[in-house]
Specification:
4 helices; 133 residues; globular
Length: 133
C-alpha cells in the first residue's frame, strides 16, 4: 500500500484540487492507497474560485476544510507533492516533489481552470508512475 501526500501552506487551493483528483484516481484504479493533505498554516476555508473550478468538472469541494498536516503524517508518505510554496524538511526516505504551481487565490476563472488542468495532469502522471513502480 502506498501513501501519497499533497501539501501547500494554506491547504485551500492547489493541494485541495490535487487531493480530490488523487481520490478520484484511487477509486478509478481500485487502489488501496492512503492520501494525506494539509497545510503548514491552514486557511479557514477552501478558496471559492477553487470550489467553483472543481464544480465545473463534477467534483464538490464545498464541504472541505483546510487542515494542518503534521510532520509525522508526511514522514509516513512514500511521496509528497508540494505545490510550490512549501519548505518541508522530511525524512530522507520520503520522495518530495515540488510542483511549483501558481496560487489560484484571487485569479480569474480561466486562470484557475488552467491551474486545475495542470494539477489533474500531474496527479494522473504521478499515479501512472507509482502504479507501474
Amino acid at each position: 500500500m502506498r501513501t501519497v501526500g499533497f501539501v501547500c501552506v494554506q491547504n485551500a487551493g492547489r493541494s485541495q484540487m490535487a487531493t480530490a483528483f488523487a481520490e478520484r484516481e484511487r477509486e478509478r484504479r481500485e487502489l488501496d492507497w492512503t492520501i494525506v493533505t494539509g497545510g503548514t498554516l491552514p486557511a479557514d476555508h477552501v478558496h471559492e474560485e477553487v470550489v467553483d473550478a472543481m464544480a465545473d468538472v463534477g467534483i464538490d469541494l464545498s464541504g472541505r476544510t483546510p487542515r494542518e498536516v503534521s510532520d509525522d503524517e508526511l514522514d509516513s508518505c512514500d511521496v509528497v507533492a508540494t505545490m510550490g510554496c512549501s519548505t518541508l524538511s522530511l525524512d530522507t526516505s520520503v520522495d518530495v516533489r515540488d510542483w511549483d504551481l501558481p496560487d489560484p487565490d484571487g485569479r480569474s476563472p480561466d486562470e484557475v481552470a488552467e491551474i486545475r488542468e495542470e494539477v489533474e495532469r500531474r496527479v494522473v502522471a504521478l499515479f501512472d508512475e507509482l502504479a507501474d513502480a
